[in-house]
């Protein structure tokens, strides 16, 4: 990695640029984004220069695609990637992006990526060199042998240097797991808040629980449209599991049998807070 | 209010005692609780003295019942309340307590209460004079005319002095609303965490969303058993509404129709964060 082009210099792309610099990356960091974003990114010192796609392809050897998922799919298909460059992305779903890469990326080296980090506010103004600190960072090799390639190891090493924890998963595994840990929670919050919108007077008894469970309901649909469209079957499976569980619980609301669900739930919640035994299998 | 007896000197009862004192209450504050709790409450300066139920009934003119709901129901039925004392409670459901009061409280003056405040950790060690600051505090008069009684106004004034916002609701309205704002959120978190307990590897992609949505899953069943048993029909209604919404959303996951649900959800989430126009109707 000598010269990096960030496509989409928003919260994630901008934070990756800042994190790389803080971790000691000394090469050029170019930004490919809208003129307003480039202006903001330059004034914040997030990138060294704004350039177009063509020039980026001429000059960079590492490409970080941090746009919305459908834009990543488009730019992958529309770009003539030079042989031997490394392309990675930060999209929240991985299978369709992996398929597009297989089709479009030629002899470039592709590694799917998904940093499990974020903030309530998007945009390069909120970019933060420490955004990835302590967070899992999923890497999806095209084939298992890719993890032994020096280019894969180079990216993994940078991810460790920026403070994140690399997790190796294949794209389909990734998409199924995030349907449960990220996409279903979003839809639960959306559904609860949408129901509450119709309950007159509910705000007069709003306590901390409802504020916590409805915070995600402010998430922008633009981002979620792409995520849900590219992970529909898995999200549907995860929602079906939660709906089935809710129906089960509804049947035993007044009963001591519910104690068992509370125990299972505490165990599940605890697991989410424990570091997986092995981040890089 | 000259002499206060707190039944159940835990997080809520202890905080009410500390808050009263901080707000300038100069009378006695007695505690009725287990010997260990009384010892802790005395050493923390939360109460002036620990006494038994009999002595409390002889000496106090204001009773604050802050035990679990089923214990409140029991103590109400088992106690011979003197005429003219004021009895209030801090139970999370109000209708069954109101019914028990009508049956057991004789000529004492009963006011249902529910402070919308809490902490992750229970117990008098976590009691806090500022726990109620800025939080809604529901008062349920037995009949609408009670709000004009000086005893009701005296309690309402103390609630304002401890920094809380009195909300007047009848017990049935209260129970229906909290089913949506408190009990359904608890069950959603329990159901999600219970499902996640069975998804191997999910913790490797656990981001902030799932941590937020599963925090309530650590709530102790002991408290929730009483709440759900005494509000079963309303919680069932609220869960049915959320389940129906989840099923609707599942049908349109890949569609732009979902934009409308995201808008409605943002509106609902916003309403939960806005101060109701009128706390005391």
Count of helical stretches of chain A: 11
Helix share bin of chain A: 40-55%
Oligomeric organization of the protein chains: homodimer
Helix and strand pattern of chain A: EHEHEHEHEHEEHEHHHHH
Distance between the termini of chain A: 24 Å
Shape of chain A: globular
Rg calculated over all Cα atoms of chain A: 21 Å
- Class from secondary-structure proportions of chain A: alpha/beta
Uncertain spans of chain A: none
Q: Got a strand count of chain A?
A: 8
Strand content of chain A: 5-15%
The largest inter-chain interface, given as chain pair and residues per side, is: A-B, 93 and 93 residues
Main sheet of chain A: which strands, in order across?
Answer: 3-2-1-4-5-6-7-8
| Overall pLDDT score of chain A | 95
The major sheet of chain A is characterized as: 8 strands, mixed
Describe the overall structure.
Two copies of one chain form a homodimer. Chain A is of the alpha/beta class and 281 residues long. Chain A has eleven helices and eight strands. The first copy, chain A, has an eight-stranded mixed beta sheet, sandwiched between helices. In chain A, strand 2, helix 2 and strand 3 form a beta-alpha-beta unit. In chain A, helix 4 packs parallel to helix 5. The longest helix of chain A is centred in the middle third of the chain and has 26 residues. The mean pLDDT of chain A is 95. At the A-B interface, helix 7, helix 8, helix 9, helix 10 and helix 11 of A face helix 7, helix 8, helix 9, helix 10 and helix 11 of B.
């Amino acid at each position: 990695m000598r010269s990096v082009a960030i496509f989409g210099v928003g919260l994630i792309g901008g934070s990756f640029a800042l994190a790389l610099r803080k971790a000691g990356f000394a090469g050029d960091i170019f930004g490919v984004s809208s003129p307003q974003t480039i202006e903001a990114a330059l004034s914040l010192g997030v990138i060294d220069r704004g350039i177009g796609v063509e020039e980026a392809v001429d000059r960079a050897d590492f490409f970080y695609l941090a746009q919305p998922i459908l834009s990543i799919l488009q730019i992958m298909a529309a770009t003539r990637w030079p042989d031997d460059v490394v392309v990675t992305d930060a999209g929240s779903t991985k299978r369709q992006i992996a398929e597009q890469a297989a089709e479009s990326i030629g002899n470039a080296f592709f590694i799917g990526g998904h940093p499990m980090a974020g903030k309530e506010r998007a945009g390069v103004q909120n970019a933060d060199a420490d955004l990835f600190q302590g967070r899992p960072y999923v890497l999806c090799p095209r084939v298992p042998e890719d993890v032994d390639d020096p280019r894969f190891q180079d990216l993994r090493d940078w991810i460790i240097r920026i403070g994140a924890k690399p997790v190796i998963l294949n794209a389909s595994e990734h998409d199924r797991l995030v349907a449960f840990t990220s996409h279903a929670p979003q839809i639960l919050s959306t559904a609860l808040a949408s129901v509450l919108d119709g309950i007159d007077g509910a705000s007069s008894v709003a306590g901390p629980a409802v504020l916590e469970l409805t915070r995600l309901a402010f998430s922008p649909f633009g981002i979620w449209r792409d995520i849900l469209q590219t992970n529909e079957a898995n999200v549907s499976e995860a929602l079906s599991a939660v709906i089935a569980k809710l129906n089960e619980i509804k049947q035993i609301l007044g009963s001591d049998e519910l104690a068992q669900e509370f125990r299972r739930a505490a165990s599940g919640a605890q697991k989410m807070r424990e570091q997986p035994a092995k981040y890089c299998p």
